[in-house]
Design a protein that fits this description.
The protein is mostly beta strands and 350 residues long. The protein has two domains: 157 residues, no CATH class; 97 residues, Jelly Rolls (Sandwich). It is 11% helix and 39% strand. The protein is built from six helices and 25 strands. It is elongated. The chain starts with a helix and ends with a strand.
Amino acid sequence: MRRLLQLPCISVATLLLFCSLPAPAAGLSVEWKKVSAAGKSFGVRVVRVPREGYRVKIGLANGRVGSTASLASIAQSHGAVAAINGCFFSAYTRDAIKPPWHHVITEGQLVHHGQTGTTLGFDAQGNYRMERLQIRITGTVGPEQERPSNWYAYRVNFPPGASGAILFNRYWAGAKTPAGGKQTIVQNGVVRSVGSGGLPIPRDGYALSFVGGDAHLGNHFQPGHRVTMQIDYGSRDEEFWQSVQEGLGCGPRLVAEGRVAYDPKAEGFNDPKILSLAGARSAVGIRRDGTLLLVTCSATVRQLADIMKALGAYDAMNLDGGASSGLWVQGKYLVRPGRNISNAILILKR
């Protein structure tokens, strides 16, 4: 009873809410609080993750790009202690494969190449960067002792359209490449086979698919030819991004170096859900001391930027929201998503 008397101005409803939260892992803190931002008050759920003792993992649904699963199953499959939903994806397509819209890096590999937004990346030591990336994939191919030809790919693990230059690796949701175009299998820097689709994707290599206006690139590949590949992240800190182990794109950016940095159109966003409408939101942020913030609330994305700044984020970005918004800690949902999702930001013990 004495302890309750030491907590003035806390309602019974608030006490019940705190009691309903799962007991966090040592070092994690789980909180529901009111945050004043942009002249309004918002109810916010926050998971604070100290840098020491934890690491970030990008979890793919069923371990594959284009698959979907519940947030809980993604978290549990990796032994996570906390998780928040990840980036936007093709949630409304009727196709079985529902790819993400943004850059995805896991286990040190680029497993999806997006076109919009901001990317958050972590190296093996837990250092991070958050910035807009313009990733380019280029390479050469040809017989030894001869001048090679150039090739490029501008998608990774993405369903082909009328045209496309696409790289598929072992993270693709299908066991084989989609049919169509001119395709090649590369292992250990050597062309192993060529075909027109339905080729098995090697675990220790990759497949290239050239379709439509890009099909001419496939003419350069013949069995036995040597192949090189280079990924350029388009960053002023290229060395860091080459060392990134786990990274996820989404956006728009909310906070940059402690200041609100909200410019969705510049990042390629034009949907009213992002530009003006309120709804369920998720965000990830990092404080100057390295504490990671996993946040959910109901707000516009612009208001979310003020909320993240008020929570002390030095850098922050928006994540997928609406029915995808979800927060999971120690085996229980704080916020349950209304649908299966493509990927998630997971917190694992080191």
